[in-house]
Each structure stands twice: as C-alpha cells, then as structure tokens.
Amino acid sequence: MSLEEKFAALSVGDEQSVVDAIKADGVKKSGFAENIEALKAKCASSDEAEALAGFKTVKAIAEGAPEGGAFVKECLTACLAQTTSKSADVRSASSEAAYAICKNVNPFAVKSLLPMIFAKLPVEEKWQIRELALKLIASFNETAPRQLGNALPEVVPEVTACMWDTKKQVKKASTDAMRDSMGVIGNKDIEHMTDKILEAITKPKSVPEIMHEMAGVTFVQSVECPALAMVVPLLLRGLREKTIATKRQAAVIIDNMSKLVDNPLDAAPFLPLLLPALESNADSISDPEARSVTEKAVNQLKRLKDLSDKQAQVRGDVSKLDKEFEKALGCEDADSALALAIRHASVIATAMMDLGFMEDMQWTKNVSVQFAGFFDKDKAEAATEKVREEAEKMLVIPEDDDDDDDAEELCNCQFTLAYGTKILLHNTRMKLKRGKNYGLLGGNDSGKTTLMRSIANNQVEGFPDTGDVRTVFVEADIQGEQSHLSCVEYVVADPKIQKMGVPIEDVRSILSTVGFTDDGKAKPDHAVSTLSGGWRMKLALARAMLQKADILLLDEPTNHLDVINVAWVKNYLNSLKDVTAIIVSHDSGLLNDCCSHILSIENLKLRTFKGNLDEFAKVNPDIRAFFSLKASSKKFKFPQPGPIDGVKSKGKALMKMSGCTFTYPGNETPTLYDINIQVSLSSRVACIGENGAGKSTMIKLLVGENVPQVGDVWKHPNARIAYVAQHAFHHIESHLSKTPNEYIRWRYANNGEDKESLVKSSMIFTEEELKLQKTPYEIQFTDEDSGKVSKVKKVVGELVGGRKTNKSKEYEYEVRYAGSTIDSGEYLPAKVLKKMGWDKAMKAVDLKIAQRSGLYIRPLSTKNVEQHLEDCGLDREFGTHYRMSALSGGQKVKVVLAAAMWNQPHILILDEPTNYLDRESLGALAGAIEGFDGGVVIISHNNEFTQALCPETWLMDAGHLETKGDADWMLKQDVKIDDQQQITEMTDAAGNVSKVKGQKKKLSKKEEKQLVKKIKAKIKNDEALDTDEEEFAFEKDLM
Fold first, then answer.
1. Cα–Cα dist 869/16, whole Å
2. Packing angle, helices 110-118 and 336-355, rounded to 10
C-alpha cells in the first residue's frame, strides 16, 4: 500500500509503517514528500480518530525519520491549533507532536519553525494555543541554544508582548520563555542581570534603579546579537524615562556596549530602534553634559550603521541560497516537494553562515542530507560544496587595497589588549611591513604606550616573538636605581645589550655620534642623573641603535628636544630603510615628515591608513586638533589666585633672582652665570634654549629646589607657587597606590599645607645657620607700662607658626625660646631672626600661611577634589576610582598639574608641560592658561604653544640669560648659536626691533640718597612702587 493510500485511511497504529517506508525508500520515492498535505489535513481534522492518527504519525516521523524533518514540520500549525480540541486525547497528542517536531528538527532549522509559532501568539488566539507556543520557544534552550540566540532579535519582541497578558498561564509561560531565552545569550558580563532585565519588562518603575546597576557593569566580552536582543528593550525604556540621569545612563551603556560589537551586522536589527530614540534625546535633553554624552552615543551608533550597511550582503540570505542550490542541483524548475527541501536546506545553511559554521564536513552533515531522497549522495554533496564555496565568498568583507605587497610583512595579528579592568583594544588587527613608519594616534587614555610596552614584553597575542623580530622600546624615563650610573654604564647595564655582547668601545662610539663627547655638553662618563630631558632621550635612542632593531617602538621621541635635535631624530628615522618604526608623538611635524602610515585607535579598534598625518586629516577632519591648539574641544579651568596682602599691582614682583651663579657638585664650570629675573602676576614668560643650556636648572633655583653659590633668590612671603617639573612623574612616584583624589587630599590634609613644598634643599639649615641659632643673641625689650628698656641674651628654640605686622609694616614671627616647654607668645622682628639664623624657618612659616589662605574658598572634600581634577582634564572615573599606577602618562601629568593648582597659586611654573599631553589636552591647557589671572613661566620647545601664550621670552644659551625677545628663536635654529655671540636686540612677531636691556647704571651717592628719600615717602603714603624702586627698596632693606 502506498503512503498516499495509507494517509487516506490513516488510523492509530499505522505510524510505524509510515516511518519504515520513509526510511526504506526516502521521502521522494515513498511518496511522503508529495503527500504531506494529506497528513496535515488529518492533523487538522475535527474527527478525533483522524486527528489522533495524524498526531501519532507526526510524532513517530519526527522522532524516527529525521530525513522527513523538512516536511513533517509543516504540521506544526495544526498541532498548535488542536490544543483547544474538546478531546483531551487530541490535546495531549497534539502537544506531544509539537514538542517532537521542535526537539528533533535540525537545530539550524529553528528559524523555519518560528513564523508558525509567532503566528499563534497574538492575543486573538486562545490562551491554550499561546501557552504551548511559548513553551515550544522555551524548549529550544535545550535543543538549539546557539540557534535560539541567533534568533533572539525576532523572539524577544514577540515574547515580551505576552508578558503583560492578563491570563496567568500565558504570563507565566512567557516569563519562563524569556528566562530560558536569556540563558543562551552567552555573555558573562550581563548574565547576572537576567532577573533584573525581566523585572524591568513587567515593572517599568524599576527601570531607573536597574539602569543604575547596568551602568556599573564592566563590559569586556564581545557583544553579539543575543546579548543585544536582551538588553535593547531595557535600554529603550531607559531612553524614554523622564529623568535625565536615566537617559544619560542609557546612552553611556549603549556607547560602551557598541564599542565591543565585533560584527556590525549583529547590531543591525536594533539600530532602527535605538538611533531615533537617542537622536531625539540629543535634541531635547536640557543638561549640556548629558546631551554631550548622548551625542557621543549617537555618533557611535552611526558609525556602526555605516559599517553594517557596507556589510549587509554578507549576512546569510535564504533567497540567495535558494537560487544557488537550484543552480548547483540543476533544477531551476523544481516541483513543490523539491522546492520545500531546497528551502529547508537554505534555512539551515543561512543559520550556519550566521553562526560561523563554514567547514565542509559541517555542511555535509547538516545540509547535503536534506537532498538524500531526491539525488544520489555524491551529487548532493558536490552541489552542497559548490553552494558552501559561494556562501564563503558572500561572507568575505573586502579589505582596503595595499600597494606595498613587495614589502616584507613583519606582523599580521589579531588581538585584545587590556590594562587592569579597562579594555583598550578589542579583537583588532594590526599589520606591519618592513621599512615603514607608523604614527600611532589616540587620546591620552586610549592605550598607545600600553600597546607598545606590551609588544616589547611579548604580551600581544600573535605578534612575532621579540627574539625572531627584534623589537626595541625607546623611552626617556630613567629608573631611580640606575640614576647613579654613568651614561656608558647605563647603556651597558641594559640586559639586551649584555645579551648581545656589545663591546664598550662600540657603546662609546655610538654615544659620540649622538653628541656624548668628553668636551661636549653631555659627557659619556657623567651620571645620567645630570642629564636634561633632551639628552636623556638621545641616550635612549643611542641604546636602541646598538640593538639593531627590526621594529623600533618610539614613545614621544621628541619630548624635551630642541629644534636642532628634533631635526636630527627626523633624519635618523628617515634614514632607516629596513627598520619599521611605530611612533607615538604629539609633534605633528614629526608625524608628517616621517610617517608612511597612520595607526589610529578608535572605539577599541586599530585602524590603518596609508599616508602621513596631513593626508589622514583630509579624510578624518576631527583629527584637526593635531594641528591647531584652538581646535581643541576639551576645556580645562584653573582656579583663580586670591589676593596677596601688600600687593596692589599685577606688575609687582613676587619672585626674583639677583646675580645668581650655580655650579653642580662635581662640575668645574658653572651651569648658570649671573642670572637676573623677576616674575609678577602679569608675567607670561617663555623660557627657551637648547638642550642642556640650563633652563630647568634656573627654574629649580627660582622655586628653591637648589641653592645658588652666588647671588640671591627672593619670593614674596604671601605668594603661592605651583611648579610642575620636567620629569613630572617624580611628584607622585611614592604614591602610585593612591587614587588621584586620595593623593591630593593626603598632600593638603594639614590645614591646606602642601606636604611636598617643604622638601627642598633651600629649606634645609646649613651648619653655619645651625651654629647661629644656638648662639645667644641680645634682644631688647620695652615695658609697655613703664617704658623701661631692658636687654637680655636669649636663644630661640623654634618658630611656632604665628606671624603679625608691626607698626613699621614689618613682619614679626612668634617664637619659643630654648628650654621653654610652652609658647612664649612673644614675637621677634624678621631682621632680628634673620641675624639669628632663622631665615629659612621664616620662609617656611610664610609658605604655610600662604597655603592656608588658599584653602578658605574650597574645603578639601572628595567632591571638591573630584571637580577640581575634572577641571584639569581628568575624568572623575580616573580621578576618584583608579589608582595612579593604572593611569597613562598623559593622565599622570594632569594629576600632577591638578595637585599643583589645588591651593590656588599666584604663579604657575611649567617645565615642558607639552610632554605626554595629546594635542586636544594641550589646546585645553593653553585655554586654561589664557584665562588664568596669575603669572605663568613656561619652559618648552613647542613653538606653537609658547608663541600663543607668552609675549615675554627668556633665552638661555650656555648658562647665560637674555631677556625680552620672542619665541621665534626656535624657528631660527638652522645654525648653532655662537657661544661667544652676545645678543643685543630681539625682533617680535610683528617685526618690531627692541634692544636687550643691559646692565643697570650704577647710581652716584647723591642719586642714591634722592631715591631712598623718594621711596620712603611712597611707602609712608602707601603708594605703589615700580619694579626698579621695589628692587632697590629690598636691596637697601627699606621694606
């Protein structure tokens, strides 16, 4: 009896014979494929016997004849409809048949069942049908978890709609189905949030709190389609909330998650939902900061949309594969049975493409077997292989052309890079070729230095071992334990140099080529601690040259270098024909002159561009901040200095150096000669000169870190000074286990006193001063009642911190006499204490009082420090929650800057502030300096930076200082300045020529007497003195 005849008179008990026929003759020859409609009719019959026979047969085929899966699944609609049958047996049989179809269908064919299941979910259907449909969806959690995950974009909206149903059975089944669906998302970052996401669907009032918890999730794992399907409904609710805070959190989560989407097509189904909601918020949110965060998320999603639009053709397309199978099988005019088999095979193949199952054996096992009843095995497998090959072509994303195919490929790897809990690069690819120079671009905290250090330490997955491809990391920082070594010893001590067995003669030879000579500014046998920043970088480059690298990793190679040495670095890099260089630099000239390619870190990916920085900027206009400080979108804000007691003019000097000469211990020749400078609130000074000319040494004398052997250094007792050193990290090296917020609160914890300001050699008593302090000094006392004058010899034990002004407008300081255990409450004049050896102690008291006076406006609270760090460019995430050991170089500089600025200084001194800061941060720093009402002194080789800010110039040349001038000096260094040449005039930017001020004319006794009289009169009448008068008054002790 044929199956056609058997189906016509089907009864319970016939099911096994049907299965046997299919297994023996196949779906085509047995007649099963052509007669599937008859079986569907039996299942849909209102006759109990027919329906039972149909369902029993469906169940038997689903479980016993997998080759019939493409056809028996057509009975699923009838199985669902019959769950409302009046017959309990039919209801039971229909349910069993439905489960059998869903549990035994090829897992990759799950998507072919979903349309039939979704059709039975609308509220118009009876609750029994809807309940079973939801339970069938939940069953895929066990039989086809990955395939269910792939289908979640379609599943979640359908199931979510049922979770609000009034029928408790439907509500429970939908909740269970959603929970089981969430179990297949495969994302450990958010799987602990499953119950919370479920709660958000049914309890909208809980959304703000759940969004807050979601915002605290650290996303590390790649975000794929299943995870997005689960989170997007919650995010949409968050975007539609009334509170701005919740809208902002939703935008932050979207921005963070979208950066971890490796395949843009995973995000494609959700972009039409999220983008309009985000764009609406970006237009309507009133809070500027929240609006900015939302705009950032909008731009990120638009980037994903552009990528997904380009790749739309690679997502498996059932209709495309139908045509490919028809062509491969030679059956463009297939009958209905074969068309059904082809469509089933296409659905399976599509799901395999989506999930990355592209091996030939996988397709043979899952796809070619679908044609077993229609074609012989060889033909089915050959046709399937042809379609698989075409499918692989569909999945290929065309890469940008690279016309350097003749260059040797040194590296082509894919990797993920993290620093602590922060993901820096995620599943990104890097390709490097021999002889090319790559400029590495990215923000201050994007991971540039971490990437290069990881490459050098063999920590980048897939990157060639540094033993096979010799890789050298060049940085100028010298570890403290090596600072006592000579330059030669420092190079020889490097483990890689030792391993190579480089002779010491070769070390000296290389050092001499970069300027380390016995008669030069930097001597090979002097300690590295005596080197300026520029010479330290040249030492690091010399060490790299000895290692004969295949790949040079250069971290800010022009930091601290003057224009002469920058040109040397450029020539050196361009001369390397067989060496590849990766360069991190904020010097746009270097990136333009030396780079053949640009590597840009964007959204956790490494993008490669062929060309230099100018060419890269043409297609990426946002990078214009690399050219113009004013193009910066960042803003820094410095606290304004408070008033200074006794200073009414911004031009009045607050710091001075007079006739200062300084020689480093061990040197015979002075580093500085007869330096005379002053700084006021109105000062905007650029200190420029060659490497090793003495710029940083002069500033260290000015701030009291060193003491001149000849000359005087003076600071106004009420002035607060902020100093950021050239090697800025030394400020925080002992506190790396603290967060920036903790560090600043520690530093100023004692009533606003700066713990680091007193650790200076200029504040340490000399032996002569200690001797004076122990020598009894005759002090005159006047009895206020009787007027009797008495003289007593006493020894001051210490200054206890009090200070007042006497009738003569001189400071007097509170003292405790030697041998006394209590404060005397007595004050002595500054003149007397100076003669007793307490000058430095008075300066310490002045400093503490000045620092305390800067505290009255802002209490030292966590919140205030957090805001201050943000004003100085460090996000609160890094300022309050990250330890300083985990911060990048640029972030550490911002910490040092913020710490120095906390007590609202009157004078800001910056030694090479442009090092480590990206151009946007540099532009923000320039803006903050422009808006700062205090005095500023900047040492820098960055002509653009100083020229924009500083009308006054101090030119240091071989220890001799010339004032006035402008920053054009750096543009005129094509030739070496003659050591003997005396500069007599300077030309400013407008072309105006001004004479350099020479030595002051010595006054005659008569002129001096007249000037003393004039100054005394001004002081008596409380009139302001000009700069020269004030200097003379201090010199003659009139003030």
1. 78
2. 110
Q: Compute the C-alpha angle 766/767/771, nearest 5°.
A: 120
915: pLDDT strictly greater than 90: no
Residues 895 and 912: their CA atoms lie apart, in Å, by: 15
- Integer Cα distance of 227 and 224 in angstroms: 6
Burial of 896 (0-12, 13-18, 19+ CB in 10 A): buried
Q: Which of 393-402, 546-555, 760-769, 969-978 has the lowest mean pLDDT?
A: 969-978
Secondary structure of 409-421 in HEC code, one letter for each residue: EEEEEEEEEEECC
Q: Give the contacts of 768 (CB within 8 A, at least 6 positions apart).
A: 837
| Statement: residue 307 has pLDDT above 80 | no
- Pull the structure tokens for residue 294: 């939302």
Asked if residue 354 lies in contact with residue 265, where contact means CB atoms within 8 angstroms, the answer is no
Which 8-state DSSP code applies to residue 486? Answer: B
- Strand-pair partners of 685: 937, 952
| Residue scoring higher pLDDT (1033 or 197) | 197
| CA 328 to mean position of chain CA atoms | 51
**Predicted pLDDT at 977:** 25
**Which of 184-193, 798-807, 911-920 has the least mean pLDDT?**
911-920
Please tell me the distance from the alpha carbon of residue 188 to that of residue 219, in angstroms, as a whole number. 9
Q: In what order do the strands lie in the sheet with 907-911?
A: 721-724, 907-911, 935-939, 684-689, 952-957, 960-962
749 CB-side CA count, 13 A: 7
Tokens of 360: 């030939």
Total count of residues recorded for the chain: 1039
Q: Which amino acid is at 785?
A: D
Compute the distance between CA of residue 910 and CA of residue 723 in angstroms, rounded to an integer.
Answer: 6
Helix count (H) and strand count (E) of the chain? 42, 24
Lookup result for tokens 């920058």: 566
Give me the mean pLDDT over the 830-848 stretch: 78
CA–centroid distance for 141 within its chain: 38
Q: Is the dihedral of CA 356, 362, 366, 370 positive or negative?
A: positive
The amino acid present at 20, given as its one-letter code, is: D
**Contact partners, residue 443, CB within 8 Å, separation at least 6:** 601, 918, 920
Strand partners, 438: 582, 597
Among 483, 600, 586, 459, which residue's Cα sits nearest to residue 945? 586
Nearest-CA neighbor of 68 among 111, 104, 103, 16? Answer: 104
**Cα distance between residue 491 and residue 531, in whole Å:** 14
What is the rounded CA–CA span in Å between residue 573 and residue 565? 12
Phi, psi of 777 (to 5 degrees): -125, 135
Query: What CA–CA distance (Å, rounded) separates 612 from 610?
Result: 7
Residue 539 neighbours by CB distance under 10 Å: 23
CA-CA distance, 511 to 522, in Å (whole number)? 10
Dihedral class, residue 904 (left if φ above 0, else alpha if ψ from -120 to 50, else beta)? left
Task: Report the relative pairing of strands 935-939 and 777-782 from DSSP bridges.
Answer: unpaired
**CA dist., res. 855 & res. 751, Å (int):** 8
What gap in Å lies between CA 152 and CA 227, rounded to an integer? 9
- At position 429, the amino acid (one-letter code) is R
pLDDT value for 970? 37
Is a pLDDT exceeding 80 seen at residue 560?
A: no
Residue 754: other Cβ atoms inside 10 A: 23
Pairing between strand 777-782 and 789-794? antiparallel
Nearest residue to 674 (alpha-carbon basis) of 665, 686, 683, 662: 662
Residue 790 has pLDDT above 60, yes or no: yes
Measured CA to CA, the distance from residue 299 to residue 622 in angstroms comes to 13
In angstroms, what CA-CA distances link 532 with 460, 473, 910?
33, 20, 15
Distance, in Å, from the CA atom of 532 to the CA atom of 697, rounded to the nearest integer, reads 9
Taking a C-beta distance cutoff of 8 angstroms, is the pair 236, 280 a contact? no
The pTM is what?
0.52
How does DSSP classify residue 641? P
